[in-house]
Amino acid sequence: GAGVSQSPSNKVTEKGKDVELRCDPISGHTALYWYRQSLGQGLEFLIYFQGNSAPDKSGLPSDRFSAERTGGSVSTLTIQRTQQEDSAVYLCASTNWGGGEETQYFGPGTRLLVL
Amino acid sequence: SQQGEEDPQALSIQEGENATMNCSYKTSINNLQWYRQNSGRGLVHLILIRSNEREKHSGRLRVTLDTSKKSSSLLITASRAADTASYFCAVAYYNQGGKLIFGQGTELSVKP
User: Fold this and answer.
1) CB contact under 8 A, A56 and B31
2) What is the separation of C-alpha A77 from the centre of its chain, rounded to a whole number of angstroms?
3) Are A7 and A107 in contact (CB under 8 A)?
4) Span B65-87, mean pLDDT?
5) Out of A93, A97, A108, whose CB is closest to B41?
């Protein structure tokens, strides 16, 4: 079946604009994760969704970042009033955590450049 | 920080040689996973080892886990130029919903 997909692949935006990044997880996976990879910070956890539970937002770097997961499937990560330090690759992963699956499967990422 | 640490940061070897990368972490884990990344894009899952396991194999890959030392190693045997990539370990802690905490990665270069 299809893996995790993300769109867009690349996004260039101007400082101060809002951006939306999309993630389509593997069908049937209950858990969805967002990570960010930047030169200075390496790979860092941002937020995760598990079933109908409240999301764990502990990794979001500021209140400009938010995410939602509609219908237990597709997720959107929104960054408001983007800053240059938001430039990074944003990675999404999914798994069937709690359903006997622990391996996280990653999408190809969205490369965000804030000018 | 709960972040794992990896060493070496960079490793350069000749084709046919073995490559060993190490990862350490701080507190008890649920599982530890190794990933490969080519050219800064998506992460490819290599092996998952659970806290009650000590060794796992997959093709030319061997992963060991020593929970007493809170460390893991990834061994790639008979390396090939195509193994050139960045390798990351990531740990999932108990009661944290499976979110992964990544190490800084090891950049492996295999020269033909």
Assistant:
1) no
2) 6
3) no
4) 96
5) A108
Q: Chain B within 8 Å of A10 (Cβ-Cβ)? A: no
- The alpha carbon of residue A115 and the mean position of all alpha carbons in its chain are separated, in whole angstroms, by 21
Question: For residue B3, is pLDDT > 70?
Answer: no
Specify whether domain B5-111 bears CATH 3.90.105.10.
Answer: no
- Mean pLDDT across the stretch A75-92? 97
Write down the residue that tokens 């649920």 correspond to: B30
| Residue in B with minimal Cα distance to A100 | B98
Sign of the Cα pseudo-torsion (B36, B41, B43, B44, in order) = negative
| Chain B residues whose beta carbon lies within 8 Å of the beta carbon of residue A37 | 40
The CATH number corresponding to A5-102 among 1.10.10.10, 2.40.100.20, 2.60.40.10, 3.90.1720.10 equals 2.60.40.10
Q: Where are the domains of chain A?
A: 5-102
